[in-house]
Amino acid sequence: MKKNSVIGGRTSKLSLGNYFFDMGPSSLTMPHQLTSLFMNSNRNLHDYLTLLPIDPLYRLFFSIW
């Protein structure tokens, strides 16, 4: 596994100019929140994204030394 180039791992952020982007999580567990955001912006989520189910939803691996 390759380490990230920045400190923070799954909780790191990306800075582009005056904007900041959360770099985690890798799955969307509450799609209704995203749908609501698009609806409040008078947009249709499905015009921009295709949501697919993930099975298993989430897996983490830790090495044991």
Automatic annotation (TrEMBL):
InterPro entries: FAD/NAD-bd_sf. This is Phytoene dehydrogenase. It comes from Listeria aquatica FSL S10-1188.
